[in-house]
Structure to design on (162 residues):
């Protein structure tokens, strides 16, 4: 009986070893995601006298053109923040303005590789205020063409005094 159990154990071990040797190994396959896929965000523009815009916007990173700043990429590749294009807050503002027929303007700063939003719907920051950009209630640590946004984010441009 002992001999039969030992033979079974040896056979099971050999079969298991052979199975592990010839079984294909699972390999991690790289996940390729298109990072500049359109996202749906909630955009709010709050001026000194109240809300100037609130709505859902579908956006992705793209070239942006302003009267003052000209045409430049606004897709997260600015300043080398992302290796490929991604949706950004300023691109969302630009899409909302084009689709909802309001204006905005911004100066391009090549040293920052980004726009500074100067006015939205005719309301400018001027010498004592600026347009703060926040995502989900937190001010962005970089410019609006350098910060990546995702579906469901709450993007806000808020007129803010110094």
């Amino acid at each position: 009986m002992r001999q039969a159990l030992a033979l079974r154990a040896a056979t099971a071990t050999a079969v298991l070893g052979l199975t592990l040797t010839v079984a294909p190994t699972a390999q991690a396959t790289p996940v390729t995601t298109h990072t500049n896929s359109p996202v749906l965000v909630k955009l709010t523009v709050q001026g000194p006298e109240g809300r100037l815009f609130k709505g859902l916007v579908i956006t992705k990173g793209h070239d942006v053109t302003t009267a003052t700043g000209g045409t430049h990429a606004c897709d997260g590749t600015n300043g080398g923040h992302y290796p490929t294009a991604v949706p950004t807050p300023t691109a969302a503002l630009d899409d909302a303005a084009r689709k909802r027929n309001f204006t905005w303007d911004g100066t391009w700063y090549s040293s920052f590789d980004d726009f500074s939003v100067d006015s939205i719907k005719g309301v400018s920051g001027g010498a004592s205020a600026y347009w703060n950009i926040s995502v989900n209630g937190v001010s962005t640590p970089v410019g609006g063409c350098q910060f990546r946004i995702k579906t469901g984010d709450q993007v806000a441009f808020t007129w803010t005094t110094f």
